[in-house]
Amino acid sequence: MNQIKSILLVLICCFPLATFSQNDYKLWLQYDSIEDSELKQSYLDAFKAINVMGNSPSLDVSHKEISKAYHSFFNEELKTAESGDGLLILANIDQLPANMRSDVKSDIENINSEGYIIMSLEQNGNKVILITAKTDIGVLYGSFRLIKEMQLHNDLSNLAIIDSPKIQKRVLNHWDNLDRTVERGYAGFSIWDWHLLPELIKPEYTDYARANASIGINGTVLTNVNANSLILTEQYIEKVKALAEVFRPYGIQVYLTARFSAPLESGDVDTADPLNAEVRQWWKDKADEIYAEIPDFGGFLVKANSEGQPGPNNYDRTHVDGANMLAEAVAPHNGIVMWRAFVYSEDDPEDRAKQAYSEFVPFDGRFKENVLVQVKNGPIDFQPREPFHPVFGAMPNTPLMMEFQITQEYLGFASHLVFLPKLFEETLEEDTYVNGENSTVAKVIDGSLSNKKLTGMAGVANIGTAKNWTGHPFGQSSWYGFGRLAWDPYMSSEEIAEEWLKMTFTNEEAFIYPVTDLMIKSREAVVKYMTPLGLHHIMDTGHHYGPGPWVSNLSRPEWNPVYYHKADEEGIGFDRTQSGSDALSQYANPIAEKYSSPETTPEKYLLWFHHLPWDYEMDNGETLWHNLATTYQEGVEDVEEMVDTWNNMEEYVDKERFEKVAMLLQIQLKESKWWRDACLSYFQQFSGMEIPESVPQPEHDLEYYKSLEFPFAPGIRPSWE
Ligand code: BDP
């Protein structure tokens, strides 16, 4: 009786509450029970027991993860066994018996240290599945891959999967402050609970590591690029160490941001000059101190002489001096330095889009070999659309690391559904033409274009304390997709969307096709309703939430939207051709040549490179003004379509996630209209032309849109401006 009572209690009290929010927390590692009996049987035939050869924390977590998934898929325990039919073997190649090793001999030569092999083999008349690799981390990645094959309902009867990451450093950048606010974070506070570390180890830390390992992310920068030197003190190193220990079995290295003035701030020396012997020694000692606690510490990420951060220029030294000093300090421990190229100066009248190139390209080949120069995908700043950064391809003798932003600073925060892998893919596929045709950005990043040993990709995280990690349920897909593209920068965004949907929601085709389509179109939708035809950086300043094309009163010219759109009675757009800033000359031919004329510039970049009259005739025969207005409207209509698509999906999604997405899409729809109306009202004063009939008249007058203020918008940078 008591037992029945407690079961009832569990059912009544916990079940309805627990299930849905747990779904959201579990990300793409849902491990939904496999209901199709034929499929289930085929999986149970494929493996009934596991044999983990060898012993290590990474093999342990691999075993644990597979057992967890197995139980969740089949409601059965995965047994352990030494031999027999239907055995799954997990082993580092060194642990493998000679006969099995010879089965994979040639394949093992084709994988790198993090790659893996999954093979169906015959062993003494028994069918077995082997997951093997050169390292235990490779085995872990293989284990997640096998689980994924089941999540995707793929056939397991004849496996021959050989895979390796194409990029080495696959790193999340957390812009997390020590007080737990997150710069440009829209999913709550920082997940790092510094105050309670190192004693309190939250289960979220492990789940964070599992999620990242499942997509191959192998590094995390714990702290904001606008750095606080306190993180380098003994008190904090102990806390960092505690996190590193949780992450280590999952193959994730921790990195910290290094505030350039840390030696000075520590009070130990009275300068931070990178050529000063005491300063150099200070960094060496600091590195030794960190590595003594965290032997696999990854290294430092540095934002120097950018937006008020201290750097070598403060001492009349160069980025090379600064980066090489830190590189020397971490080199004995195999550490690296990720030195950011996101620099632009308030005193420099040069077009902001040109400054990083002007400053860094002359340094090509002068950085030490453990330095990666980290470059944002575009030359301005994480806009809904930018052409690729001209530095890619222009520094063949320097390893360049890609920096994408996963958090949606300029793309509607965590309220808008925007599937960012579509944006990432567009940049990676762009041809730089530096070594002739097909010199894509992906090839620069994976090192194949100029034979680079050190390679990397960074993503500014969208993760916070929100129960579902990312605020918007679909924000998870951009985290997922970043990891997949860091592993393989040639993957298609469609494939990524499909995988993520199946793993996160359901395998039902009637769900997968329309929602994949929705995700893929979501990126172009945001471009249309925020910054069509090459417009950029017209978000309201400071918080970057909502439209603010009118803003012109900030002290630094390049912080004002009017700097970027340059709208006046004559026309609109930034002339970056020879008659303007000539930023175009930083690109190789044929791009430079082709984009020098508006007629041959792709319309998506038109106003990025050209200032054109309002009545300029576009490809479709209409005026520029007409197309600007109708494109804004198309953006709104795209969101309407997204709303409709989602509303038809109710039967496939749990109530909580369904409703949350539906409500957020309503916000997105409302805000897309706000963008259209505010921008068209503003630009119309210059064009003096009528809004086309197919586009609704703005709901309010311009003064209304200008009057809107958002002092408490999330993610704002403290003491910004
Ligand atoms: C800009 C953000 C600012 C960051 C900066 C950076 O507005 O908060 O500190 O980039 O990347 O996008 O350093």
From TrEMBL:
Residues 150-469 form the Glycosyl hydrolase family 67 catalytic domain. The keyword Hydrolase applies. Its EC number is 3.2.1.131. Coiled coil: none annotated. It catalyses: Hydrolysis of (1->2)-alpha-D-(4-O-methyl)glucuronosyl links in the main chain of hardwood xylans. Keywords: Carbohydrate metabolism, Glycosidase, Hydrolase, Polysaccharide degradation, Signal, Xylan degradation. It is an enzyme of class 3 (hydrolase). GO terms for molecular function: hydrolase activity. Residues 27-146 form the Alpha glucuronidase N-terminal domain. It comes from the Bacteria. InterPro entries: A-glucoronidase_C_sf, GH, Glyco_hydro_67_aGlcAse, Glyco_hydro_67_aGlcAse_N, Glyco_hydro_67_C, Glyco_hydro_67_cat, Hex-like_dom2. Residues 1-21 form the signal peptide. Pfam families: Glyco_hydro_67C (PF07477), Glyco_hydro_67M (PF07488), Glyco_hydro_67N (PF03648). Residues 470-693 form the Glycosyl hydrolase family 67 C-terminal domain. Homodimer. PANTHER family: ALPHA-GLUCURONIDASE A (PTHR39207:SF1). Belongs to the glycosyl hydrolase 67 family. This is Xylan alpha-1,2-glucuronidase. It comes from Autumnicola edwardsiae.
